[in-house]
What does this fold into?
Amino acid sequence: METIRARLIYNPTSGREEVRRRLPAILQRLERGGIETSCHATEGEGDAIRAASEAVERGFDMIISAGGDGTLNEVVSGLSIHEKRPSLGILPLGTTNDFARAHGIPKQWTDACDLITRRYTRPVDVGVADDKYFINIAGGGALTELTYEVPSKLKTMVGQLAYYMKGLEKITRLKPVHIRISADGVGDFDEEIMLFFIANSNSVAGFDRLAPDASTSDGLFDVLALRKCNLPEFIRLVTMVMRGESVMNDQKTIYFQSSRIQVESDDRVQLNLDGEFGGTLPCTFSILPSHLDVVMDEHGESSYRHGNSNGIGNGNGRSVQPDE
It folds into this structure.
């Protein structure tokens, strides 16, 4: 297999700083697999967007995002603005890694590198929130701000536990917001809700039963909203989710699929895009079908957890070649 050029964009603080510690070994493994790789360490908010866009302009064959969902979101944003886009490889070394979890991309860095060197890609949909991009999830309302309110240092120290700690701190102050939703092909909703998710993939905040039918290859969002409820009802639904049970058909939830959704509110509702702050309502969410080619496993045999198989094997794919 011929050598291709890749640009690895990494967040040095992600996943308890694993990327920074593993970087020499990561580069060596990619080089042995025929991927000539140079690096860019992010230095702050928006830096990965600029780095990814610049890498496209410099003609790299592949961009590799190394870090968590926030880093991936910025890399996707930097790629998506261009008409011709190189393939995207992912080293899921952050705290949650929802997109990697949903697509069977191994968390073990050696396996993830080996997957990237095989260069097999599948097209995936990308979401747009007004003028911002997201690849996994958009949301608003109670607790959806957790992922960007938790300090990076705390995530580095205790990982996923940091989100639970922050959630317990906020749960007694939950309150509903009044929103209006207009969804193409579905209709309108006008009521008080606790939170809403617009899912592009089936992994949301580390759970795969909130939107189990969501797919990044169907040209649709899966939308789930939780109606106004009291604290015991909220805890009941959270408990169901943590047990791996679906809440899609619960009387307290609204669920539908659509490719374009308008959401507005008279209240101030902050948006979460792939775990990062995405502005406030109102907002129009639309989808770009098959917008990016992402490196995945050709046979569906890789999994997020090292050594397990989750059977992700649908869709068409192809191998990345030099100067493609």
Observations:
- The chain has a mean pLDDT of 85.
